[in-house]
Amino acid sequence: MLSVLVALALIPLPGASVVLHERPADPVRLTAYGLGTQHAYLRGPAAFVRQRGASEVVVSPDGRRAAAVPAAYRGGHDTLVVTDRATGRSRRIRTVARPLMASYASWSRDGKKVLLTLEKKASGKWRSIGYVTVDVAAGTSHTTVVAGADPAATFWWTPDGAVIAQRRGDAVVHRAGAKPKVLKGVGTLTGPDLFSPSGKRMTTWCPSRLAEHVCLVNPATGAIVSRSKLRPEAVVGWWNDSSLIAVVPYRNNYRLVVAGTSGSVERVLAEIPARTWRAELWLSFTRK
């Protein structure tokens, strides 16, 4: 028992009233989190530090860099700020001009590019119209407008560098120089870390015809291969190829847990107060 207690680290999350339970052997590490678009925190050498002026921040797969989306335009443009975590040096890369917006940042698995969802306001609401890819080394961005994009879509990377987004119950894979591939009836994508480490499965919110909440889909065929009995508020990502990281209700509050893909809870990572979850808590893990 003593060895277990010594190995367990308790990591406070400032501004969130949450304490993360972490172990050295964990396959992933919480590197950023936030509350809505007003408060974003990045992990530093000793503690999490609030990123002033940033609405979101995400760490590259190798842990070397952080990409932040500012909360306001600069010079009439939306931008992406890429920071070297070792030196603290930052580079600001223009993405789109006002009135467009580019947000929901995610890194490609090779750590070379950042993907953002392109939005335009219509009738007082922000609606997705495509995506922006940022080449970090070159310091350039490229905008792609997607005809017939789902207004509620968010665009994410696939493991091999294509782009995937929901479209009214389907998933559409966009690959340069190829016709979009439609995975029919798979449900709604769960978020940025929807692909398993091996890339052989992806998570969706099950289509309404099914009783279960979370489905596991073969991304090569679009077949729903299994359904989880877990009924989470959010699927944060994958712990390993057989377990998910999720937020589940617990006694009028919430818990961050590791759960097998079948739905059984294997470990509690943190207790989350209801007020924190209502403040739109988001969590970003980086694989070790």
Description:
The protein is mainly beta and 288 residues long. The protein has helices at 2-7, 274-278, and strands at 9-13, 18-22, 28-35, 39-43, 48-50, 54-59, 65-70, 77-84, 90-97, 101-107, 113-122, 125-135, 140-145, 156-157, 163-167, 170-174, 181-183, 188-189, 202-205, 214-217, 224-228, 234-240, 243-250, 253-260, 265-272, 281-287. The chain has a 4-stranded antiparallel beta sheet. A 4-stranded antiparallel beta sheet has the order 6-7-8-9, with no helix packed on it. A 4-stranded antiparallel beta sheet has the order 10-11-12-13, with no helix packed on it. The chain is globular, with a radius of gyration of 19 Å. The model is unreliable at 1-5 (pLDDT under 50).
Q: From N to C, what is the helix and strand string?
A: HEEEEEEEEEEEEEEEEEEEEEEEEEHE
Strand order of the largest sheet: 5-4-3-26
Given the structure, what is the number of helices? 2
The end-to-end span amounts to 26 Å
List keywords for this structure.
288 residues, mainly beta, four-stranded antiparallel sheet, 2 helices, 26 strands, 54% strand, disordered N terminus
Summarize this, please?
With 288 residues, the protein is mostly beta strands. The protein contains two helices and 26 strands. A four-stranded antiparallel beta sheet has the order 5-4-3-26. A four-stranded antiparallel beta sheet has the order 6-7-8-9, with no helix packed on it. Strands 10-11-12-13 form a four-stranded antiparallel beta sheet, with no helix packed on it.
What's the helix and strand layout?
Elements: H1 2-7, E1 9-13, E2 18-22, E3 28-35, E4 39-43, E5 48-50, E6 54-59, E7 65-70, E8 77-84, E9 90-97, E10 101-107, E11 113-122, E12 125-135, E13 140-145, E14 156-157, E15 163-167, E16 170-174, E17 181-183, E18 188-189, E19 202-205, E20 214-217, E21 224-228, E22 234-240, E23 243-250, E24 253-260, E25 265-272, H2 274-278, E26 281-287
